[in-house]
Amino acid sequence: MTWTPSVALKATTITAALLAGSLLAGAVPAALPAAAAPAATAALPDAAAPRTDVTAALRKLEASFKGRIGAYAIDTATGKTIGYRSGERFPLLSTFKAVAAGAVLARTTDRELTRKVVHWTAAEVKSNSPETGKHVKDGMTLAELCRAAIIYSDNTAGNMLLKRIGGPRGLTRYFRTLKDPVSRLDRWETDLNVWSPKERRDTTTPASVARDLRALTTGGALGAKDRSRLIGWLRDNTTGDARIRAGLPKTWIVGDKTGTGGTYGTANDIAVVWPAGNAAPIIMAIYTNRRAADGATADSVVARTATLLARGLGRLS
């Protein structure tokens, strides 16, 4: 794990009014100001002097977990980064849905987003589809599908977003537009959740996906209205309370997207985090897996890693 100073980026100002309410599908909140953000997707080298205290703590946590932890965090106030196994591949799982929603937002007009209704058949409904399972007859708008995919991790909604952007290959192409040469999606829900340590399909690295999330939420990858929508959906997420959110003070504002697999105890979370009293957010990406194929997920490991990242960046004592 290493620290890297980088060119300071202009902090994105998020107003209290925006951060206070829940954004309903299709609602357009007050626009976020544009950020200086082509740099948000630029490679941030991970090669300075290691923070041995945090590294040692993560190694100890890995040993007790009997697995592997990949983590990367970016302090957008200072440009500092901190990482641990940040260049190793992990399965994307449902964290892909945050980027897929970003791709849909980037390629869809406001009118299409809120008025275009997408339909699917009962045969296309996948497991864990709490929203789309109720709307086989009437369908849902693209905005509603983005919201369902992020805040409920609805699998059918995720597939409908992929259809909109050209399938898994379309999302891989979108990763490349974010200057991410690493992340890739190869399969649809729910096949993409089947992963083994030798698998390269449907994978990312913590550093790569953290930069992608930075570009989408505080950078220039999306227009102001679409950044606001995506941030609102991330903040409304219902699946992440035991992960990154659990490792940070309750006064901090967290918008996240989780991912959970069926083998090797895979459990992920990516987040944009606003510490209390500071408008400049931290971007976090945490990916975990067990060594044993039948290992169980451990939310507490993700939460503990989030705590250590915040301390490593000097945001927690």
Automatic annotation (TrEMBL):
GO terms (molecular function) for this protein are:
beta-lactamase activity
A GO biological process of this protein is:
response to antibiotic
Q: Which InterPro entries match?
A: Beta-lactam/transpept-like, Beta-lactam_cat, Beta-lactam_class-A, Beta-lactam_class-A_AS
Keyword set, alphabetical order: Antibiotic resistance, Hydrolase, Signal
What residue stretches are annotated with the Beta-lactamase class A catalytic domain?
Answer: 70-288
Q: Which residues form the signal peptide?
A: 1-30
Could you tell me which Pfam families the record lists for this protein?
A: Beta-lactamase2
Q: What PROSITE patterns does this protein map onto? A: BETA_LACTAMASE_A
Entry's EC annotation: 3.5.2.6
Give me the reactions it catalyses.
a beta-lactam + H2O = a substituted beta-amino acid
Gene3D superfamilies to which the protein is assigned, alphabetical = DD-peptidase/beta-lactamase superfamily
Enzyme class comes to hydrolase
Keyword Hydrolase applies: yes
Identify its protein family: Belongs to the class-A beta-lactamase family.
What name is this protein filed under? Beta-lactamase
The taxonomy runs:
Bacteria, Bacillati, Actinomycetota, Actinomycetes, Streptosporangiales
